[in-house]
Amino acid sequence: MKFGLAIPNCHGDFADIHLVSEVAYEAEQAGWDGLFVWDHIGDKWGDEVLDPWVMLSAMAMRTRTVRLGTMVTPVTRRRPWKLAREVATLDHLSNGRMILGVGSGGGIEYVNYHEPGDAKTYGERMDEALELLSLLWNGERISYAGQYYQIENVRHLPRPIQQPRIPIWVGGVWPNKKPMRRAAQWDGVCPIGKGVGMTEQMTPEQAHACFDYVRSQQSPEQVTEDYACVQWGILDGKDRGHDAALVSVYAEVGANWWIENLSWERGSLQELRPFIHQGPPVHS
């Protein structure tokens, strides 16, 4: 099991770039394996919002070994070619540590900014965008004519350090099947449960059903490859034995990444620092 932290890019001192970069350093020293940031541009949680790519750049400069990524980026809110450049540049800045978490997004971040599309087409647009990302990262000269995106005679260099591509983890709400079928075709799945709040998590039974379904949608070749099954988790932080036992239950049902869901509902980032300093409950 690998252990990561998901850090909001909004609300209170989670939007303090200096504090976030310092906490990133402390988290690596404490033994966490990954640091992931939310990707919001303006939402129901308030006006204090940091840009996730600047956050990740600051975190990359303060760390050396932890994986870095978004959890998750609403791909259809961004131009795929700009996103490809940003993530590839971060892969170089971090010496090959980037992971791109993606989702279809929606809500007021689309409506209030008059973003094109609707809930029915976000998934279709996302599929094209992910295909484009993979093509642009291979460093070859390409043209692409999709329903939603078109480019002509384009080449992106330098290629990311990670090949054949930067890992793409797909988020979605379980038990919705369509995003899970999409996730099966990429490098990882990071589900959230329908109706599960920010201080709650999917049960082991729900996680097992989700991971089994994703695996059932993969080819025999895909099943043998490394694949991230993420539990978006909540640890108590007070009883290390209890936390270790809880993690083992999720490991038994297929989770191989535990990403701790930090949020202001559990306290400010400053208040959560002692929890972060403890590190994971078991060694990865």
TrEMBL record:
Domain Luciferase-like: 1-176
Keywords associated with the record: Flavoprotein, FMN, Monooxygenase, Oxidoreductase
Pfam families recorded: Bac_luciferase (PF00296)
Name of the protein this chain belongs to: Luciferase-like protein
Organism (species): Dictyobacter formicarum
